[in-house]
């Protein structure tokens, strides 16, 4: 899998869960603390050209996957297809 980039906040529970999922699965990932980097949701909106209401916002390589729920589903589907 390409590198996972998680844009989020340290205090965000779903951001923590996204990092934990990457660690459990052994994915190469980068966490971007939006507060420390001075980023806002509007900055992510410019990257993906659609509204952003929540964090985390997760990318696999250059592909925007969505938030934690979408990322968890993406991981499940990827694992299921590798078993088929």
Task: Walk me through the structure.
The structure is a single chain. Helices cover 44% and strands 21% of the residues. It is of the alpha+beta class and 84 residues long. It contains 3 helices and 4 strands. The two termini are 17 Å apart. The protein has a single domain (4-83), classed as Glutaredoxin. The longest helix is centred in the last third of the chain and has 16 residues, at 68-83. A hairpin with a 2-residue loop joins strand 3 (57-60) and strand 4. The protein has helices spanning 13-25, 41-48, 68-83; strands at 4-8, 29-33, 57-60, 63-66.
Features:
84 residues; alpha+beta; Glutaredoxin; 3 helices; 4 strands; globular
